[in-house]
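Subject: Sanity check before I submit

Could someone independently write out the structure tokens for this chain? I want to compare against mine line by line before I put it in a report. The sequence has 349 residues.
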Amino acid sequence: MHAVILAGGKGTRMRPLTVHLPKPAAPVVNRPFLFYQLDLLRGTGVEEVMVCLAYQPQRIEHALTESEDYEFSIRYVVEPTPLGTAGAFKNCEAYVQGTAIVLNGDILTDLALSDVLRHHRETAAVATIVLVPVENPSAYGVVEMAADGRVTRFVEKPRASEVTSRLINAGIYVLEPRVLSHIPEGKTFSFEYDLFPLLLERGEPVHAYVWEGYWRDIGTPRHYLQANLDVLAGKVRTYSPVRPPRGERFDEAAGIDRLSVVDPSCTVKAGAEIVNSVIGPHCFIEERARIEDSVLWSGTRVGAHAEVRGSVLGRGCHVGRAAQIAAGTFLGDKSVVTDYSIIGGEEEA
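---
Independent answer below. Compare away.
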């Protein structure tokens, strides 16, 4: 059995964080995001995982060079031109043997794929789509299904008055190889808009598997930040964050709470406070700086008495002395915030 991870998108919704780093390689609690998807495939019987690439493929391959111990091999399949979600799957046809698991490359979940596979086989489906309930389905594509779990209709971004279901496509599928015959070769083709409606039209058995556990699309900066905080809080059951010991350059008077993950290569000066945050390799946190509910990528420096709250700072950023970065701020790589600046806050009257 094979698995396919669709990791070829440009990550435009996640900019500025993805201008120089493709989304699947973005670190979640100092670990490339793709590893979390590979975690899902443990124990499923998958022998080979194909990672579909198009945008900055070398950076994604480099992120996985320090591969963790998995029981399957990894193959990289680069699209000559972007082919869409189903088109990328078609591009792997020469390697796909038997039932395939397909994952969108921006989904964080602790779904038990072995249960989905069991359901797929019991229903004799040609395609099984994992669905998740959301509060506001109008922002997504709604999936309707019959009492026996068979999918009956897809409704893309319905108005509030048209919502008939809170279930949306979770971006996780189990597919039989015969679905490949419905996908044109070398053309842009999507699962959501093209293949699945076509399968229904042709009477193919398409079933749903409803998952009510943890699921998050990390595709925007806010969702990416929340994904990091969720992992810190232990909400993702398939991975327990590794909290390394204090590094050699951590001052004894620096305060780091038990939830935070700080790479031991960092320098953390006296009086600095790090609360519920992720600090990447080789960061420099100066005296009495405070970082709370935030993510700092590698090589970033936060000046003395500066504050960073509820934000993500890309690689090699510099936050000046006594600067204040308010919640909801997202800085791309090598951004500079000068001394005493206030970013994202409202001036007092």
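---
OP: Matches mine. For the report I'm noting this point. Residues 87 and 189 are 5 Å apart (CA to CA).
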